Amino acid sequence: MSFGASPPSGGRQGAFRGVRQQGGDAATIQSCAALLVVTEPDLTVIQASDNASLFLGIAQDVTTSSLAALGGDLHDCVRKCLGRPLDGAPLVQRCRVGDARRECDLLLHRPSSGGLVIELEPAGPAVDLSVQIKGALDNVLSLDSVERLSDVSAAVFQELTGYDRVLIFRFDEAGYGQVIAERRKAGVASCLGQHFGDSEAPPNAHLLIERNRVRHLVDAHEPPVLVRPTGGADAALDLDLSRCTWRSFSPLHLQFLGRLGVRGTLVAPLSVGDRLWGLVVCHHRTPRFVHYPVRAACELLAETVATRITALEAAAETAAEARIRGVEARLIAAISRHGDWRPGLTDDGALLAGPIAATGAVVAYDGQIDTYGETPSEGRLREILEWLDARARKAVLAASVVGDEQASEGHLGPSAYALLAAPLSSADGEYLLWLRSAAAEGLGRHAGSASSTAFAAHPSQWLGHGSMGAAMLTTGRLLPRWSTLDRITARLLGEAVGDVIQQFRAVRVLIAQAQLAQAKSKLELASQPVLIADAQGAVLCTTPAWDATPGLAGKRLEVLQDLASLCIEAADVERHLRELVTLQRAWRGRIRLRGDDAATGRYLARADAVLAAPGRVLGLVVILTRTFEQAETQPSDPALGELAQGQAAGADAVSGRYSCISSLIADNRTQVARALTRQGDATEDAARCSGVERSATHALELLDRLIAYGRSGSRSRGRDAEE
């Protein structure tokens, strides 16, 4: 592949600083051309490449010379173009330069740095490419799939340019790419299927390609030529070379080409809408110069291919949407029948794998993994999910993976897969995965001489990550390719299932909120003080009875441990509550609350952790129950207090055989209450205490009535005796 200079980061403007002459850093161009920078309107040279005089065939130095003094008709050709738009792509004219009137092609444009840039290159023979271009366009426009279009485009570009190898390269959403089509001469190594990371295709290079549509490198081994200021007021001009056809290439990219055994390259972008879809990359083992007419024809064909890709992808998306509608209906029906969407996919794995014709499919959701067909082990799948989580999230990702065995050098092994992944949500580990087995298609053979493939044990080393060598996961047609329809279907399936999941979760939230509101309304009717906290001890809510309890009323608790400060036994209560939060250790005990009037209230406290599953805590609950001693000394109901006083007065007035019955009832009630407060279930104890209270009270009422009846009888007999 051939990219421009590798500029530093810093946004769109910063992307071009790596191809500017700044400070003492000299800009460079390829030695096959010459470059001049002139002022307007006098057309005086202020910067020039070191080879300018040699290229022009003149003995004099071009420093501070006017174009008119350089011979030929260069001055006249440039003067005629000054009124034309020159801020975009270079304008190309044929002219004669130097005293020998050497025929050259002139490329003219105005850079953002100012001045007028003139590039001169050798002119080729006149050639008529109309028939060849028309035949290529007819061929390209008749194809009905992106895969076939890519294969044919590679053949068309090779026939037009004569390069040893032509690659069709496709980028994913993160800027990583893969060779999806190839045409090569005999004896040339294959790059088909290889993945290239950001070290081979720098993201900023995409911006440079947008500015200079076709990039051409004649000889990677030829040293570049400096472009120097010629002195004077404009010597410090910050020269912008981003639109220059013959600017040199970065050392990083030249090293990359050297590893591939490539010396000459030509690259044309495939832009679909406002995104760089891919590249047409031409490689040659020896230096190769391509004249302007062929370069222009390549740019024309690349634009046509990109337009055709747009149409084919739109048609593929329409076809995929028709398939997805049936899947959505199936998922919604599964929710109605089972209360979950997953059975709609897992009950019939063909519903998931069928639209993409995969040999295996995986649904990873909410920590669970469901598989269909031929897939790696669950352990390997979880490694793949971890690797996917570590990458930038995108609509669909294609990669190559190894199964459970360790593949040897040059072999993929029996369980190599092509992977297609679509996220279901932004949560980690939630994806739809499709896999195609190389063995199922008889593709798991030796890699051959193209490039050995070394797979490591961890996915970060065998899933298209890293630089040259480790990034090249496949060679030749070792793994099946995912078609454009496959990718679009995967993306739409991921989006459709993701939408159903969000709807499903939204419904669950609504149901949970309704259940919470209903539970809260019932909890508010509880007569006991109750506090509810989350698993970390943060207080969520309290009952009205809690808020009305003396010692608790008006005290806002942020966390559960704040309750300890309201108790006389603060240290002991704080310890038990801390163990409840950290260890989920239940606690039963008596507490005394500090009242506003310094009086104390006695309660039996029950504190428990509510577990949804082993190791998973939903929350914490504290329930307070009045002890019986408190009920005797501080009745909450004034009417009951008056009744108790009346019962005591009645007991004091009892004589004869009824004198000890009231004491026996009261003693029995106290003993039962004390026994119950020593039991475990505070809620059940409270109900029992309440029952004992009602029974004892009723017994004392009956005794009081019996005594009153006896007394009334005695008074009646006394009156009869008097009479």
From TrEMBL:
Keyword annotations from UniProtKB, A to Z: Chromophore, Photoreceptor protein, Receptor, Sensory transduction
Keyword Kinase annotated: no
An annotated Gene Ontology molecular function: photoreceptor activity
Protein name as annotated: GAF domain-containing protein
Transmembrane segments: none
Residues in Phytochrome chromophore attachment site domain copies: 145-303
GO process terms (BP): detection of visible light; regulation of DNA-templated transcription
Keyword ATP-binding annotated: no
Signal peptide annotation: none
